[in-house]
Specification:
The protein has 298 residues and is α/β, with parallel strands linked by helices. It folds into two domains: 118 residues, Glutathione S-transferase Yfyf (Class Pi), Chain A, domain 2 (Up-down Bundle); 150 residues, Rossmann fold. Helices cover 44% and strands 10% of the residues. A four-stranded parallel β-sheet has the order 2-1-3-4, sandwiched between helices. It has a four-stranded parallel β-sheet with strand order 6-5-7-8, with helices on both faces. It is globular, with a radius of gyration of 19 Å. The two termini are 34 Å apart.
Length: 298
């Protein structure tokens, strides 16, 4: 059984719970074991343009914790994945490594950098044959893929797919039974990284992309918590920003894989999606597995 040090990232752990819930459940179904990265902190990505040294330190610190465990790191957030990848690359330089290593001594940590850093999309792609074998409820709809900017770019830090023409998400969607296609806006940013200081621009970016998908696709699949936030939970606001009513289903790829494997919606966090996913589910299955958020807990 493959085992990884699990690093969900701040936004997943504090807001995008459906991503973590579905990731844990699906990975378990595939026989992949997760071990908590105890003592982990923010990757530092939000501070990159304020204090680069702090960003490098925080990411190197998380890698050092994984070094102690002797496990590769599995990451959910593309922004975290980029920060950790970038820190590992920068730590190859003697000056940066010396400075950060000295700072880590204050926590009795030693950076070795022996562990690989994987985004969950890479893990799914490496297990695509196993996923295919386990499909019991094909996703017989047409889906669009949203990778997230930091999963692909900058390419020099080693993204998970071709930065100009990625295909791994589409290949996974096909394996679970969905139809898919490329579309002109496929690599456009969701606007999430600028939402807190330029909300109007961010919402317009998200709204334009969703508007372009409506009528052409049945759902959008994401592997980025920023993208899910903008396209799912802020979809109504995004529609208002472009003067158009939007009503488009948005899922995490983890949720779609889970449904295809026959996992109940309660175990995939589908009740936490805020876009109208029932539109897709009503077509997908005779009896939806989406729990009613108004149901009283047992």
């Amino acid at each position: 059984m493959a085992k990884y040090a699990f690093y969900p990232g701040c936004i997943v752990s504090t807001e995008q719970y459906g991503y973590e819930i579905s990731a844990r459940r699906v990975l378990s179904e595939l026989g992949i074991e997760l071990e908590e990265l105890e003592g982990s902190s923010c990757c530092g990505a939000p501070l990159r343009h304020v204090n680069l040294n702090l960003t490098q330190y925080l990411s190197a610190r998380n890698i050092a914790l994984a070094d102690e465990m002797g496990l590769d790191i599995l990451v959910l957030c593309p922004n975290c994945h980029l920060a950790l990848r970038d820190a590992k690359q920068k730590m190859e330089g003697k000056e940066v490594r010396s400075r950060i290593s000295e700072e880590l001594k204050g926590e009795d940590l030693t950076y070795q950098g022996n562990e690989n850093i994987y985004h969950i999309l890479e893990i799914f792609y490496d297990n695509i044959d196993e996923i295919k074998k386990r499909v019991v409820k094909p996703i017989e709809l047409k889906g669009a893929a949203h990778y997230g900017c930091h999963l692909l770019r900058p390419s020099e830090t080693g993204g998970v797919d071709n930065p100009e023409n990625p295909s791994k998400m589409e290949e996974i969607l096909k394996v679970i039974g969905a139809k898919t296609d490329r579309y002109p806006e496929r690599l456009n940013c969701c606007g999430g990284p600028i939402y807190f200081h330029k909300p109007d621009a961010a919402l317009s970016m998200a709204g334009d992309k969703i508007a372009a998908l409506q009528g052409k696709f049945d759902f959008l699949a994401t592997v980025c918590p920023y993208g899910q936030r903008m396209y799912d939970s802020k979809q109504e606001q995004a529609g208002k920003s472009i003067g158009q009513e939007l009503g488009f289903p948005v899922f995490y790829l983890t949720q779609l894989i889970g449904m295809a494997l026959g996992i109940d919606g309660k175990e995939l966090g589908l009740d936490l999606n805020l876009s109208p996913i029932e539109k897709a589910l009503s077509t997908l299955m005779a009896e939806s597995t989406v729990p009613d958020p108004d149901d009283e807990p047992e």
